[in-house]
Specification:
Sig_transdc_His_kin_Hpt_dom, Hpt domain-containing protein, Four Helix Bundle (Hemerythrin (Met), subunit A), 108 residues, mainly alpha, phosphoprotein, elongated
């Protein structure tokens, strides 16, 4: 499960400014969504936690992580059913995405 920029580059169609703007939005939103997911989970607000997993799933897709998308979709379904068995795997995915995004400099 390695993130990549292939899909974002395809969307940008050669526009580095557009690519950077998309990455900035993904970085900002992902941080907020991860924080809100964890907060909701800690409070036992599963319905809200599921909502944030769903939002994160779209970022996983943007970063071209097909296996990560499948994991997130399964975790979303299981969480909705009251199971957090995939929480560790999902947290690992979040770390991978965060590290990848942190390694990209969009300020030029």
């Amino acid at each position: 499960m390695r993130p990549n920029l292939q899909y974002i580059k395809q969307l940008a169609n050669g526009s580095e400014a557009f690519e950077n703007k998309v990455l900035e939005v993904v970085k900002r939103e992902l941080r907020l969504e991860i924080s809100s997911f964890r907060e909701s989970l800690n409070k036992g607000d599963i319905e809200n936690a599921v909502l944030f997993v769903h939002k994160i799933k779209h970022k996983v897709s943007l970063l071209g992580m097909e296996e990560g998308y499948a994991l997130t979709a399964k975790f979303e379904d299981e969480l909705r059913e009251g199971s957090d068995a995939l929480l560790g795997n999902f947290e690992s995915l979040l770390r991978i995405m965060t590290m990848f995004l942190d390694s990209i400099n969009t300020e030029k």
